From TrEMBL:
Residues 2-93 form the Stress-response A/B barrel domain. It comes from Nannocystis punicea. It comes from the Bacteria. InterPro entries: Dabb, Dimeric_a/b-barrel. This is Dabb family protein.
Amino acid sequence: MILNVLRFSFKDGAGPEGRTRAMAAPRRTAAMESVSFAVIGQDLGDPAQGFTRAYCVGIADLPALQRYLDDPVHRAGDLVFAPLVARLARVALADDAEPALACPLRGCAER
């Protein structure tokens, strides 16, 4: 299982409609067949870190991860979501020791 976690906050000028539109994009992405489960909502971490929202998806394996990253729904969602985000931090982790899992997420050439 691969977990992809985003913590983020919106730009001050995003406004309620922009935030609603921005949150709809990762919800569409999380509904793709390559996603095993998802949690999208408020960030429960330290408010001093500046994050207000969070997105977490569970992805079963490397082939599903590649489908997730290459899916047009994911790419289109980034174009809606990213311009409205002020602060973003990402962490990815896996319960599999396979080194090739990191390449699609880091952009490195597969070995």
